[in-house]
């Protein structure tokens, strides 16, 4: 059987959908914190089991009979490592034969604070002895498009990335890659740096939005502190605002750029174009 943790989250649902194209529903376990939220998956024949990262007693039963497990990193911005460790320990005890983990692009060397717990999780997986594949996901293009309405209203994107380039991809692309790794063989022991075929700066993102909207939209580069203040003023928790501002600074140093093409090769098609995602954002 194949299990996906966080299966009712934004990425998890897409992974389940991709798996269903090649794997029978009764061979897929949606491991979720709240089984009520997985009722729609159960209606499609997917096995829904409770698996709460913060309640280790739920994890062993959730992974019973599972051969391949996708550990989708916790959405907590700090304190993720103990939750991930609990999943890894439970997977080891359950006899899982392969664990895949959604890490962060260049986690082994990235200066971004967001990479720290990903790097530590990779180390815990390595120490566990479980056969593993590390999926180092780049930035999600959706992260930038969340600012789309405000950018249109005020005529500007803001950030602290200078002219750093983002090889960000669509969540759908990362989901298909994860499903491919679970559903096929030959991935154990590999680390994939996953990023889009196309990279862009935030100034280029603003120019694309301007082109498609017909409105003047620019990119205003701020200091890390000023950008953090903008994010907290918009209602983000201070911890998250600090991590996102730090990630922009890391991007200015190349931390979120990659041109290996590994993502496109895994999914067997070109990655989703920025232009297409901006167009879709307008439709939404």
UniProtKB/TrEMBL annotation:
SUPFAM superfamilies documented for this protein: NAD(P)-binding Rossmann-fold domains
Domain of life: Bacteria
InterPro entries: NAD(P)-bd_dom (IPR016040), NAD(P)-bd_dom_sf (IPR036291), NmrA-type_oxidoreductase (IPR052718)
Entries under Pfam families matching the protein: NAD_binding_10
Gene3D superfamilies named among the record's database cross-references: NAD(P)-binding Rossmann-like Domain (3.40.50.720), UDP-galactose 4-epimerase, domain 1 (3.90.25.10)
Domain named NAD(P)-binding: residues: 6-182
Identification of the protein by name: NAD(P)H dehydrogenase (Quinone)
Species of origin: Neorhizobium alkalisoli
């Amino acid at each position: 059987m194949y299990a996906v943790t966080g299966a009712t989250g934004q990425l998890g649902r897409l992974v389940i959908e991709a798996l269903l194209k090649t794997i029978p529903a009764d061979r897929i376990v949606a491991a979720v914190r709240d089984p009520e939220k997985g009722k729609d998956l159960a209606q499609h024949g997917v096995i829904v089991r409770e698996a709460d990262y913060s309640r280790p007693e739920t994890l062993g039963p959730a992974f019973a009979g599972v051969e391949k497990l996708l550990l989708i990193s916790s959405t907590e911005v700090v304190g993720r490592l103990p939750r991930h460790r609990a999943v890894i320990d439970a997977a080891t005890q359950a006899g899982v034969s392969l664990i895949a983990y959604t890490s962060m692009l260049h986690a082994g060397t990235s200066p971004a604070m967001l990479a720290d717990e990903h790097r530590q999780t990779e180390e815990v997986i390595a120490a566990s002895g479980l056969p593993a594949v590390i999926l180092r996901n780049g930035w999600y293009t959706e992260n930038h498009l969340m600012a789309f309405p405000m950018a249109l209203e005020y005529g500007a994107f803001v950030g602290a990335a200078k002219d750093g380039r983002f090889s960000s991809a669509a969540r759908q692309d990362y989901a298909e890659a994860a499903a491919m790794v679970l559903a096929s063989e030959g991935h154990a022991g590999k680390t994939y740096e996953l990023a889009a075929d196309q990279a862009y700066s935030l100034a280029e993102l603003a120019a694309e939005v301007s082109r498609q909207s017909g409105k003047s939209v620019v990119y205003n580069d701020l200091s890390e502190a000023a950008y953090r203040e903008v994010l907290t003023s918009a209602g983000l928790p201070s911890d998250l605002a600090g991590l996102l501002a730090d990630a922009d600074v890391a991007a200015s140093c190349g931390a979120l750029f990659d041109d290996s093409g590994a993502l496109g090769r895994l999914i067997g098609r070109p990655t989703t174009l920025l232009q297409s995602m901006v167009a879709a954002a307008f439709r939404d």
